[in-house]
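Quick one, tokens below:
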């Protein structure tokens, strides 16, 4: 997405498969992206498009078997994550990379006090004593705005609401001041007021810590508020990348435009009927030979069915952020449509 010199995390040509009774699922297909230092990258798409599997593969969290990484590279600084021995990965997970999971209730141990779960991370990665860890745990709970933090640290997960549990997950993820924070649907199942509070906490902590964030979501409202850069995923592939302004105002892929048109807005000047995306994503047991969006695309051409589109460069910002779309409509010889922006192939 940008020149690689300012990337804290770089992923290139990642492919992940799962062996099942029905065959092999090609869950992630040739995914590449870069996470800029101190910035937020949102990975957006429908459920099942491969967002969570992508980041879980980086963290070594997909079960092998049935899953396997068949190709690719993922570098945290100069450290190659893929294929790293479990012992080495354990030194990175929770330390250099923190992760907030979708469901905090199932991610926290219901038999352990909240403070003890934070202390465990601090003892493993920072070598703190139990007493030092408990003091730090209370400080972390206070930082994520949990009232009466010292008392709350002695309570169990069932005594917390969903929003409070998500704050605990943020505290656990930040315990070692990670370089990268991965937030996988951090506001799922929370009401809008609590969602706003969680996002505000994440933004404040990012400013304080200077960390980089990968935000996994299907909520474009969250993307508009949080993201600096966006990668749009569909059928296991990234089909468009760019700055948040590029994606919202100059979308170059019909799927990106479809997502935006299917999103409600409270702007009185943009009153319009929501347009759902008809159809369903393709079967990843047998991925399409051409564009994965072909069957649902209102601008599909015969070429799209049998030829995988390359990435076409639409623009590059002064900061070096590349806006590109994997769509044949961006080819110089394609017919003009409302979905087409500039047409310039990515230079090799």
């Amino acid at each position: 997405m940008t020149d690689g010199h300012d990337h804290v995390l770089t992923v290139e040509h990642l492919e992940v498969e799962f062996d099942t009774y029905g065959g092999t699922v090609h869950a992630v297909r040739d995914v590449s992206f870069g996470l800029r230092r101190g910035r937020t990258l949102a990975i957006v798409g429908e459920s099942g498009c491969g967002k969570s599997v992508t980041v879980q593969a980086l963290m070594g969290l997909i079960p092998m078997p049935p899953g396997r990484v068949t190709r690719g590279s993922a570098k945290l600084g100069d450290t190659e994550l893929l294929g790293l021995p479990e012992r080495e990965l354990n030194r990175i997970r929770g330390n250099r990379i923190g992760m907030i999971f979708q469901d905090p209730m199932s991610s926290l141990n219901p038999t352990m006090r909240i403070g003890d779960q934070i202390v465990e991370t601090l003892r493993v990665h920072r070598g703190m004593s139990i007493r030092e860890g408990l003091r730090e745990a209370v400080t972390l709970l206070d930082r994520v705005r949990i009232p009466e933090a010292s008392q709350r640290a002695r309570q169990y997960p069932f005594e917390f609401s969903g929003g409070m549990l998500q704050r605990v997950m943020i505290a656990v993820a930040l315990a070692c001041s990670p370089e990268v924070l991965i937030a996988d649907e951090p506001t799922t199942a929370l009401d809008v007021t609590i969602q706003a509070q969680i996002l505000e906490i994440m933004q404040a902590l990012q400013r304080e810590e200077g960390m980089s964030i990968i935000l996994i979501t299907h909520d474009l409202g969250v993307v508009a508020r949080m993201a600096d850069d966006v990668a749009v995923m569909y059928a296991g592939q990234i089909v468009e990348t760019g700055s948040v302004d590029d994606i919202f105002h100059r979308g170059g892929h019909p799927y990106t435009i479809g997502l935006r048109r299917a999103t409600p807005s409270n702007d009185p000047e943009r009153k319009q009927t929501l347009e759902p995306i008809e159809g369903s994503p393709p079967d990843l047991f047998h991925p399409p030979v051409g564009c994965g969006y072909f069957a649902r695309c209102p601008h599909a051409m015969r070429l799209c069915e049998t030829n995988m589109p390359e990435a076409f460069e639409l623009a590059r910002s002064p900061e070096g952020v590349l806006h590109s779309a994997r769509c044949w409509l961006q080819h110089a010889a394609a017919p003009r449509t409302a979905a087409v922006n500039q047409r310039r192939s990515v230079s090799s």
